[in-house]
Design a protein that fits this description.
Keywords: Carbohydrate metabolism, Glycosidase, Hydrolase, Polysaccharide degradation, Xylan degradation. This protein has 700 residues and is of the alpha/beta class. The chain has 21 helices and 16 strands.
């Protein structure tokens, strides 16, 4: 597909109006003195041409020395490289910024207005340039600009779900993989455009291949495809192919990672074991790491999922996750690489919620310094809403990474609009230590999840990535989730409202007749999906799960999940409390007490923690079953409002994006009604209590 047919997402750089900010922009930005030292600086110069060229209608004149014949200019470089920068900023303060941090300052130099973008690293100059262009695109003032920024967490990574040689994507709601590994080392323009999108929101790492990299248990019908599975990317010739791609991402400050299978020493290395305690296995991993870094010096590291969903791991050899993670860490540590060890393990418990904490809490403090334990936001699997994992806040001696899902596996699969940023904010703001026992530095007495992600070795990973669809994400509004992930990974203190304003303004425009309807649709979408797909009281896994058809995890099928719904004639929900499987007791005492009592448990999680009678009255006087009915109907009403609110944009935005989203919202309303009717039938079948308002005939 020609490059000009792909959407520009939030990097549209529409021309700003003829007002005071525009004149200030022209004075300070139409001439740019930009350092030329590193590959990242070429990206800066290119982005300034595109950005300022679009915003002001004319590309900037680029200089290799400070121009003295013009009244004002932009200077981009480190203080060490450029005298004008050193003269204009607090160099000591700049030097103290974390990797990727930057400083934007409007000042004067030799009597001329100068706007400075500076940083201690070239990567920081890239992020700083994008931050400046974001400000210009939103029409914000720059004359008094004096802003320091640095990332809150050191590693901000996208985990692809791609099967690279087949170019298929699990949960790929945006078409085939945009990375064509089979054609490497040949490069496509698409790769640079993708690197731009990631860098513009501060993402600094990308795992190219499937986050669940699997070694097939038996050969497939297509043996050639087995030979080109994602785990084969560690092969020497494949590493050679990856080096040019790494250079593209490097230009934008993004490092390459690979998802590896724990059994690679056997399947790829020809050993007769992958036992992490075997010296031959340790030597194999060390030699493989050397081989990788010889070709990709800034390689980020390995992502590993082991002992889960039938894949090999240390348990196969009588070892534990510390043994498994540390053998890889010792191989990567000399190169400053990291192992991201996924905590998504289950299989030995009837309720997977219990297993993660039981598995990893006893191992706290034993992991190598080069290991990051990557933990999903909740204990189940990216449900529309679930409690925050009890692992957060209770492994103080282990570096943690928060794993979020950018793609909409359980939130409508990019057919339904569902804005994930409010969900992620709920997770990041969760207080893991409300009594302050751990001496945290959260906003309250304790330590919030976001506070656990700020130190060296921590990070945030987002699962699922764009594909070949012209919109990048398969639904134009799903672009907001990719944007929001990057912005929250950079600064988890940002509010949902601030992120929404940024994305909407850059993507559709800042005028209220456009921004307000888009904002309303985004903010209403997640509550709508929760209501019509779960009933809104903490239920989950209500969807079809068969593998034989495309509707996997899309269609409603609550009857498939008795272990998760707990539905019976006497009530609904699962006792994950002291009377049940004890999951609630995995949290610190104050949180456990809150969850353990149905009178104090937050209503939105009530049936996750408690099996309650259908006719039990809740705080507002309604029964459990009537609340479920009401929430399902409310979800449909919310979906209908999304559709009607979007119609207000007819003629105010381009027809292509308006029509695409409008048609998706029509489908969302239809599917919301299907979900509602299915769930209402399910609740009635088990409770025998009809909806008191008799709003919809039962489906027979």
């Amino acid at each position: 597909m020609p490059l000009d047919e792909y959407d520009d997402c939030w990097l549209r750089y529409d021309r700003v109006g003829d007002d005071a900010p525009r004149e200030s922009y022209r004075r300070r930005c139409l001439h740019a003195y930009v350092s030329t030292g590193a590959p990242e600086l070429a990206a800066v110069r290119d982005e300034l041409r595109r950005g300022i060229g679009g915003i002001l209608g004319r590309e900037p004149h680029l200089w290799q020395h400070p121009p003295r014949s013009v009244d004002g200019f932009l200077a981009v470089g480190t203080p060490e490289e450029m005298e004008v920068v050193a003269d204009s900023v607090d160099t000591d303060a700049v030097a103290e910024l974390a990797d990727g941090g930057f400083h934007l300052r409007a000042t004067e130099w030799e009597g001329s207005p100068v706007l400075v973008v500076t940083a201690p690293t070239d990567r920081g100059l890239v992020y700083g340039t994008f931050a400046l262009l974001r400000r210009l695109a939103l029409g914000r003032p720059i004359d008094d600009l004096d802003r320091f920024e640095e990332p809150a967490t050191p590693d901000r990574v996208i985990d692809h779900w791609d099967n690279p040689f087949r170019r298929s994507v699990e949960r790929g709601y945006a078409g085939p993989s945009l990375i064509d590994v089979g054609e490497l080392p040949a490069l496509r323009d698409r790769y640079e455009e993708y690197a731009r999108l990631l860098s513009s929101v501060g993402i600094n790492g990308v795992v190219l291949n499937n986050v669940n990299t699997e070694i097939p248990s038996r050969p497939s019908a297509n043996a050639a495809m087995d030979a080109f599975a994602g785990w084969q990317l560690l092969a020497t010739d494949r590493l050679d192919d990856l080096a040019p791609l790494a250079s593209v991402f490097r230009r934008y400050g993004v490092r390459l990672y690979l998802s590896v299978n724990f059994g690679a020493p056997e399947t790829l290395g020809g050993l007769d074991t992958a036992d992490p305690t075997d010296p031959a296995v340790e030597e194999w991993w060390a030699e493989k790491a050397d081989e990788v870094y010889e070709r990709i010096p800034d390689f980020g590291g390995f992502l590993v999922k082991a002992d889960s969903e039938g894949q090999p791991g240390p348990y196969d050899y009588g070892a534990d996750h510390v043994d498994g993670a540390n053998v890889l860490a010792r191989a990567l540590a000399p190169h400053s690489g990291r192992v991201w060890w996924r905590a998504f393990v289950y299989g030995s418990h009837a309720d997977r919620a219990v297993q993660q904490y039981e598995t990893f809490a006893p191992l706290d403090g034993a992991f190598h310094d080069a290991v990051t334990l990557q933990v999903k936001n909740g204990p189940i699997d990216f449900q529309p809403r679930e409690p925050v994992s009890p692992v957060f806040g209770q492994l103080p001696e282990t570096d943690l990474g928060l794993e979020l899902q950018i793609t909409g596996e359980y939130t409508g699969q990019h057919v339904h609009a569902c804005y994930h940023v409010p969900m992620w904010k709920e997770v990041l703001e969760f207080d893991t230590d409300p009594e302050g026992v751990g001496g945290g530095e959260g906003d309250g007495d304790g330590t919030r999840v976001k506070d656990l992600l700020r130190g060296p070795g921590s990070g945030i990973a987002g699962v699922g990535a764009p594909g070949e669809d012209p919109s990048w994400t398969g639904h134009y509004l799903a672009q907001a989730n990719l944007y929001g992930f990057g912005r929250l990974a950079w600064d988890p203190d940002l509010s949902t409202e601030a992120i929404t304003d940024e994305w909407t303004g850059q993507t559709f425009g800042t005028g209220p007749t456009v921004a307000e309807p888009v904002t309303d649709v985004l903010h209403e979408s997640w509550p709508a999906v929760i209501d019509y797909t779960t009933g809104g009281l903490g239920l989950l896994h209500m969807m079809y799960n068969g593998e034989a058809r495309l509707e996997n995890h899309y269609d409603p099928a609550p009857e498939e999940w008795p272990g998760y719904t707990g539905a019976s004639a006497d009530g609904i929900g699962v006792d994950r409390n002291a009377r049940g499987n004890g999951y609630a007791q995995q949290y610190p005492e104050a949180i456990a007490a809150r969850y353990d009592d149905p009178e104090t448990c937050p209503e939105e999680l009530l049936l996750f923690f408690h099996h309650l009678a259908w006719d039990r009255e809740l705080a507002d006087g309604r029964t459990v079953v009537q609340t479920l009915y009401d929430n399902c109907f409310r979800g449909v009403a919310r979906a209908e409002r999304l559709r009607e609110r979007w119609r207000d944009l007819d003629g105010r935005i381009d027809d292509r994006r308006f029509r695409h989203v409008a048609e998706r919202l029509e489908e969302q309303v239809l599917q919301a009604r299907r979900w509602r009717d299915s769930l209402v039938d399910f609740f009635y079948d088990h409770s025998g209590i009809p909806d008191e308002d008799c709003r919809v005939p039962r489906t027979e």
